[in-house]
Amino acid sequence: MDRTERMRELSEKLKEASRAYYQEDREIMSNLMYDRLYDELEALEKETGIVLAGSPTVTVGYEAVDELPKERHETPMLSLDKTKDVEALAEFAGDHEVLLSWKLDGLTVVLTYEDGALKKAVTRGNGEIGEVITNNARVFKNVPLAIPHRGELILRGEAVIRYTDFEKINGEIEDEAARYKNPRNLCSGSVRQLNNEITAGRNVYFYAFSLVRAAGVDFENSREKQFLWLRSQGFDVVEYKKVRGEGVADAVMEFSRAVASNDVPSDGLVCIYEDIAYGQSLGRTAKFPRDSFAFKWQDELRETCLKEIEWSPSRTGLINPVAIFEPVELEGTTVSRASVHNVSILKSLKLGVGDRITVYKANMIIPQIAENLTGSGTVQIPDVCPACGGATRIQKVNDVESLYCTNPDCQAKKIKAFTLFVSRDAMNIDGLSEMTLEKFLASGYVKEYADLFHLDRYREEIVQMEGFGERSYAKLTDSLEKARHTTLPRVIYSLGIPNIGVANAKVLCKEYGYDLARLRAAGAEELSEIPGVGGVIGASVEAYFADEEHNRWLDDLIKELDIQVEQVDTSMLTLDGRIFVITGSLTHFANRNELKNLIESKGGKVTGSVTSKTSYLINNDTMSSSSKNKKAKELGVEILSEQDFLDRFA
């Protein structure tokens, strides 16, 4: 095992031990063993000059920003010319050695290191201008925070979320409508978060695929030596094979066989000349470099017959169309279902029962309908919900039509809502499967969330249910008693507020000092100003707490719970309720974040723009004619210099 691998192993062991000791109240290794492993890791870091992301020897603080700054790339980031023809790829290689590697399906990021430390991370953006996401890159799972090389280093790579993590995150979102469509979409949103605590929870990985510049290092004109050197610096490098033209077909076949088991999303391969000077001598077209080519998989299409459209209700009322077709073999598995996603796509495909359709697996993973060969367009969009018989309506949002059930008492909505409520990251109640909940709801044992804590009223009936008994009932009762002792973020997530996941629930609770009354009273505009929240989530939260039944259910639920109170020293919150905007250069503080942290530690809030709710604008040039100063004067917002702020509040 090389030293970098040993460092990864030590880091994971130490983190697992800390998690067990501090979060789960159990000990999996002695203090002596922990110290030995820690010392070994620290020694290896000093020896190699590499500090891996998440190392127990360093702490990367979570931080929220008001916006992601834009920055122009030093050189434009071009797209690659593409082919689906293996022979064309082999012809491109010819007698030259090429590196054939995965074309990862995520978000391209450029990293810059200076004096051995990560200085900057910028997204690809439009190829000319990207967004600065340095704060988020620091919490990627595998980006080294420190490296041995002391000269400037600039490299490019792909930020990705693995399929296993994607499925885990989606599995925690009960509502199908709120789930992410693919790992790339989830990764893009995760990398560009304003709050890097959310990024950290998404398990983003970075794989280097191109070295732009490494001051003072001679790579002897070899791409492979660049890759090997990047590995020596602590980076994970995209998997590759070195071949010539005659070996391209076999290499492509090896990669294609590995797709099904590859946990890292990819949508093809990249072929680049091993000889750097030769590749650069070919120049570029207006759109593409001539030293590399992208290979896209030939989609394996199968023709089949559409048997029906199944309409699947969710807890928000969204009814999702799912195509059911005669089973076909695709990429080694039998497939008979594919999501159609929404009414707009259903209409564009002109689907009808009995139509001949072609299906494929997007990125060789996700079943999709490619084309409708018949185009009868005879599928009827139901005007009643398949679960409850209530009226449906088509709702158009951002030019996308979707079908919704309008019945507030729809049984399917309730089953899905209760399933989320009892899930692991919500109230964590074992012994309540969706099937069991369906029986409880149908029998009238449960009408709202609080009723789950009074199932003892129906003890005799429950122990007689199929699949239950005294032992199962005892386990359920024990689990319910444990669930009474919970935290406010778990409660907020369990309510199933549209667009609110585990991380956002934590952000909201922290923002309002774990005060439920304050959160319930917050309006959409106020909520949308919270970093990492935005307008869509703000509107969802406001709408949820504006509903009378939602509030009644929550009031009844709170009576059953022992919510652990976060300890907040209110005597220190001297700026509670005051909203600040910071602009211009600072002299007393190292940067705006330092001042922002001070304000927030005292209970204040910092936003990015001056509004009628702003209490103070901090600008050392109080008399400037900047747009923020003008806006503050228009709204009667007091403008303070740094010294004014310190004299009054510090």
Q: Explain this structure to me?
A:
- Helices cover 35% and strands 22% of the residues.
- The chain is an alpha+beta fold and 650 residues long.
- It folds into 6 domains: 3-48; 70-295, DNA ligase/mRNA capping enzyme (D-amino Acid Aminotransferase, Chain A, domain 1); 302-405, Nucleic acid-binding proteins (OB fold (Dihydrolipoamide Acetyltransferase, E2P)); 411-483, 5' to 3' exonuclease, C-terminal subdomain (DNA polymerase, domain 1); 488-563, Orthogonal Bundle (DNA polymerase, domain 1), CATH 1.10.150.20; 571-649, Rossmann fold.
- The strands form 6 sheets. Strands 12, 13, 14, 15, 16, 17 and 18 form a 7-stranded antiparallel sheet that branches.
- The longest helix has 21 residues, at 3-23.
List keywords for this structure.
650 residues, OB fold (Dihydrolipoamide Acetyltransferase, E2P), 6 domains, 7-stranded antiparallel β-sheet, 5-stranded mixed β-sheet, 24 helices
* Total strand segments: 24
Rounded to the nearest angstrom, the distance between the terminal CA atoms is 53 Å
Please tell me the total number of domains.
6
- In the CATH hierarchy, the architecture of the largest domain is 2-Layer Sandwich
Q: In percent terms, what proportion of residues is strand?
A: 15-25%
Cα-based radius of gyration, to the nearest Å: 28 Å
CATH class of the largest domain: Alpha Beta
For the sheet with most strands, the description reads: 7 strands, antiparallel
What is the CATH topology of the largest domain? D-amino Acid Aminotransferase, Chain A, domain 1
Helix percent band:
25-40%
Shape: globular
